[in-house]
């Protein structure tokens, strides 16, 4: 993906209350069992159900949140009762992991599923006030839960994380986390600490994970990453000095690779894939 050419206009309008509508009553329903989305089997494809279709299925709905409008179609997230019975009860439906949705749903809907799962998790994680333990209620005009006892507000949490492509002449730094599947490499990433700028986080994470220093840290682009609630903020940077020394905890192996030596890396549905593609194109 070329982030410079991309239009940032979105057809989706986020809202917290449904508008009065005279026309369409169409709905998209993002219904989750844990973090798996319920899709209805159509002609050789899978599609989102409507809120009405979900209501007609023999499944228990725990909670529903309105998300906003996609071209006049109202969008909802739904948390389904997570009993083992769910999958077997629902005929003509499949549960698909949020990570697998790109390629199954069109891009806008796959992204909206990320928002939906994020809001669904926020809803179930804020049923009670984190400060005093009272039951919360939905705030009227913004996406927040309010405590009627102490006034505490719980907004959806977004956890910023940095991801950085580091170049050294015609080579890129790729590394393996012990959590990766065998053979997979990626670029470095980590969470931003409280009180830290995102640029400082880039420099610190690189120093901590592989022991080198970098220069020319430049913003590249960003991607919502609802696993469970991150926003990945991408950068490019250049090697400055130091020898690679992995921390052995978050990173077990790291090295410099030319574009022709690049091993298995993340696909082009993630910002890590976009950054690696940027490197390959630059050196092709
Ligand atoms: Zn409270």
From TrEMBL:
Its cofactor is Mg(2+); Zn(2+). Residues 156-281 form the Nudix hydrolase domain. GO terms for molecular function: metal ion binding; NADH pyrophosphatase activity. Its EC number is 3.6.1.22. Keywords: Hydrolase, Magnesium, Metal-binding, NAD. It catalyses: a 5'-end NAD(+)-phospho-ribonucleoside in mRNA + H2O = a 5'-end phospho-adenosine-phospho-ribonucleoside in mRNA + beta-nicotinamide D-ribonucleotide + 2 H(+). The keyword Ribosomal protein does not apply. One of its GO terms (cellular component) is cytosol. One of its GO terms (biological process) is NAD+ catabolic process. It comes from the Archaea. NCBIfam families: PRK00241.1. Belongs to the Nudix hydrolase family. NudC subfamily. PANTHER family: NAD-CAPPED RNA HYDROLASE NUDT12 (PTHR42904:SF6), NUDIX HYDROLASE, NUDC SUBFAMILY (PTHR42904). This is NAD(+) diphosphatase. The gene is nudC.
């Amino acid at each position: 993906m070329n982030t410079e050419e991309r239009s940032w206009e979105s057809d989706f309008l986020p809202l917290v209350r449904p508008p009065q509508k005279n026309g369409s009553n169409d709905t998209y329903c993002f219904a989750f069992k844990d973090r798996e989305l319920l899709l209805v089997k159509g002609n050789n494809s899978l599609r989102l159900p409507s809120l009405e279709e979900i209501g007609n299925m023999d499944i228990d709905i725990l909670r529903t949140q309105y998300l906003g409008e996609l071209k006049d179609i109202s969008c909802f997230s739904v948390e389904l009762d997570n009993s083992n019975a769910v999958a077997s009860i629902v005929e003509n439906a499949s549960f698909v992991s949020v990570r697998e949705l790109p390629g199954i749903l069109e891009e806008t809907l796959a992204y909206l599923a990320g928002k939906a799962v994020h809001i669904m998790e926020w809803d179930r994680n804020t049923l009670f006030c984190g400060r005093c333990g009272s039951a919360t209620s939905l705030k009227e005009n913004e996406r927040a839960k309010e405590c009627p006892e102490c006034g505490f507000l719980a907004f959806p949490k977004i956890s910023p994380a940095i991801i950085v492509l580091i170049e050294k002449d015609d080579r890129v730094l790729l590394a393996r986390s012990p959590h990766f599947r065998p053979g997979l490499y990626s670029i470095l990433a980590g969470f931003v600490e409280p009180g830290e700028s995102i640029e400082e986080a880039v420099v610190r994470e690189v120093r901590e994970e592989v022991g080198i220093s970098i220069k020319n840290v430049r913003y590249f682009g960003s991607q919502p990453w609802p696993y469970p609630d991150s926003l990945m903020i991408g950068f490019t940077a250049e090697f400055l000095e130091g020898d690679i020394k992995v921390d052995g905890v978050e990173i077990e192996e790291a090295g410099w690779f030319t574009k022709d030596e690049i091993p298995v890396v993340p696909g082009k549905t993630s910002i890590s894939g976009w950054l690696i593609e940027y490197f390959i194109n630059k050196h092709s």
